[in-house]
Amino acid sequence: MLALVRLCLLFVCLKGSAAEAGLTPPHDLFMLTLNTNYTLTWDWDQSAAGSDSATFTVQYAGNHQLKKRNPKWTTVCAETSGRSCDLTRSGLNYLGLYTVRVQTNLNGSHSVWKSIQFCPDKDAAIGPPSKVRLGVSGSTLDIFITDPQNSSNNSMKEQLHKLYYEIVYWEQPEDGKGSMTMTMTTDVTILTLSEVEPWTRYCVQIRSRDDFYNKSSTFTPPLCIQTEGVVPWWKIFLFFLLSLVSCFLVVLLFLYGSHHCFHVCKATFLPNEKLPSYFKEQDGDYPCLIVSELDQCDPVMIVCPESALLETNPAVDSAALPAGLDQDRSGRHSRQNSSSSGDSGVYSAGGNSAGLQPKVALTFTDVNPTFNSEKLNMLSMNSEIKVSPIVPDEGVEDIEV
């Protein structure tokens, strides 16, 4: 009975070994690294599985563990369908030596393990500086370097204590032709290039290096900057003159614009044309300057002294004048004679003073009967404006004392 059990166990083991031998393991294992970021990649022939999908298992162990009878393997990726596995967060020591293996899983069957040796300090690539900045201080060129970062965003100098930088710089000519490059090395992150020409454009590239395993990174993209120098006095004067002229033009334009806006606003809201005082007294009841009917206008009355009338219009003789005017003329002459005697006075005692008041109130129709009175009708300024009739006063009597 015991022999039968042994035979069964032997058959199962042989069957499993045959299945594993028939399943193709992964191949072309490669560790993709940068600083402390590690990723294992591999390839596998899908034609061996047909329509079924295979999965993969990745484990690692320190080489010192392999010397034991039962080494301790740490599984990083279990039953993954991809062709890569990230070991960055697995806790690999940068100075350690490890064995990493991968196995194919298909329908409960497992292939043999495929493994590689991996030492981060030796095999992991280093990256270029994470940041480079250029600055100019007069005629010198300042370079500011930021160390490459590990997976914890710390400086790689924590793992590579002798990390340094190779700096390549060259003068960039204006014609675009190539120029001689200059190289220098440094282990500091801030340095100054003093052997440069003033007012010249320079380009800089930097890469990281470690000589223990002769590792070097790629170069950073070229950065270019122009150095400075002593500014000539004529440039200073020219800049000052241009600034002065610009300020003057700006101020002049501002003043002109303000003056123009002021006059426009004043002409709009406070015009110079003011209404006459008579219109202001009418409380908005302004007279009509244009009327449609001529009958609304009154004839213009002209009041003038008799002498002026006779002089301006000789056609009006004394016979045509009213009788009162002749008496007024004779009375005026008699009073002139009496006043020349010297012992008489003139007093206003309510008598007839027609000789002292020019009692002429004629229209153009009285002066010239042939003149058409309708042609003298003018526009009425206001219904309240009337020509007051001349009221003859009581006259002046001559009284002798």
| Mean pLDDT reading | 74
Structural class: alpha+beta
| Helical coverage, percent range | 10-25%
The largest sheet is: 5 strands, antiparallel
Ends apart, CA distance between termini: 195 Å
* Radius of gyration from the alpha-carbon trace, in angstroms: 63 Å
Instruction: Report the principal-axis shape.
Output: elongated
Order of helices and strands: HEEEEEEEEHEEEEEEEEHHHHEHE
Low-confidence stretches: 1-20, 307-368, 370-401
Could you give the count of β-strands?
Answer: 18
Number of helices: 7
Beta-strand share of residues: 25-35%
Fill in the keyword field for this structure.
five-stranded antiparallel beta sheet; alpha+beta; 24% helix; 401 residues; disordered N terminus; disordered C terminus; 26% strand
Question: Could you explain how this protein is built, in words?
Answer:
The protein is of the alpha+beta class and 401 residues long. Helix content is 24%, strand content 26%. It contains seven helices and 18 strands. It has helices at 2-22, 120-123, 233-269, 277-281, 306-312, 323-339, 364-367, and strands at 27-34, 37-43, 55-62, 74-80, 84-86, 98-106, 109-110, 114-118, 131-137, 140-146, 164-171, 181-186, 190-193, 201-210, 215-216, 223-226, 345-347, 397-399. Strands 3, 4, 6, 7 and 8 form a five-stranded antiparallel β-sheet that branches. Strands 11, 12, 14, 15 and 16 form a five-stranded antiparallel β-sheet that branches. β9 and β10 (140-146) form a beta hairpin. It is elongated and about 125 Å long. Mean pLDDT is 74; it is low at 1-20, 307-368 and 370-401.
